Amino acid sequence: MRARDGNVHRGNPRNGLLPMISHLGAMIPVVNGALLARRFKGIKGTVGAASIGDGATSTGAFHEGINQAAVEKLPLVLVVADNQYAYSTPTSRQFACRALVDKAIGYGVDAHSLEGNDLQACLQVVGEAVERARAGKGPQMVVARLLRLCGHGEHDDSNYIDPKLKLTPFGRDCLKVAEEYLLHQGWAKQAALDAWRSEAMQKVEDAVATVQREPAPDPYRETWNSLSSSHLIEGQSGS
């Protein structure tokens, strides 16, 4: 990112992967636009997906985006990670409805609820939501209940999280639950899981070593364009 941004705000639009604006409601209208563009072009069988946190459901962009998707019956699958806290704000201070899944009713949207750290449930429920969206059933909202086991960022010690929550099913480590499921299903052996973990750790170490050897960005030599594709900038020659 050449010292300009974080590690998640990138994508590959040509292949339908839109650079996201964190896990905020603002991405829902963007995905809606992509789906409408495909509809205008006569492209069928497309499903759009957006992932947001529970805090995003309290934003105006969420309301406008999911309402538009419902009215237009767009094939949108919206996954909401209900991790009990929007940064440090507990869900009890975010909404008064019984559960986030109830919000879908007011928009006429199909809703699905699951335990977000359960791999089997995620595969089944999200898969069904995708098929329903592709079959013309309109947008689908999937609410996954879980608990963020660490801080919002490196600067956050997460001391506001109720310790009792960590002892509930919400507090299970999704990676450990997934490992147990893979072993139980016979999809992988322990030796393979250990090898994958070792390989992933080595890739991270190699990437860190590569970056540490690179020179720091020089702010006086950078081209500070708002868009990476310079030909799209207004006033640019050839635009």
Write up what this structure looks like.
- By secondary structure, this protein is an alpha/beta fold.
- It has helices at residues 27-40, 60-72, 119-134, 174-185, 190-213, and strands at 48-53, 76-82, 85-86, 89-90, 110-115, 140-145.
- A 4-stranded parallel sheet has the order 1-2-6-5, sandwiched between helices. A two-stranded antiparallel sheet has the order 3-4.
- Helix 2 links the parallel strand 1 (48-53) and strand 2.
- Helix 1 runs parallel beside helix 2.
- The protein is globular, with a radius of gyration of 21 Å.
- The two termini are 25 Å apart.
Write the layout of secondary structure elements.
Blueprint: H1 27-40, E1 48-53, H2 60-72, E2 76-82, E3 85-86, E4 89-90, E5 110-115, H3 119-134, E6 140-145, H4 174-185, H5 190-213
Parallel strand pairs: 1-2, 2-6, 5-6
Antiparallel strand pairs: 3-4
Helical/strand content category: alpha/beta
- Mean pLDDT score: 88
Tell me the radius of gyration: 21 Å
Sequence of secondary-structure elements = HEHEEEEHEHH
Residues in helix, %: 25-40%
Overall morphology: globular
DSSP E strands, number: 6
Strand content: 5-15%
User: Spatial order of the strands in the main sheet?
Assistant: 1-2-6-5
Identify low-pLDDT runs: none
Largest sheet: 4 strands, parallel
Number of helices: 5
User: End-to-end distance, in Å?
Assistant: 25 Å
Give a quick summary of the entry.
This protein has 239 residues and is an alpha/beta fold.
Which features characterize this protein?
two-stranded antiparallel sheet; 6 strands; 239 residues
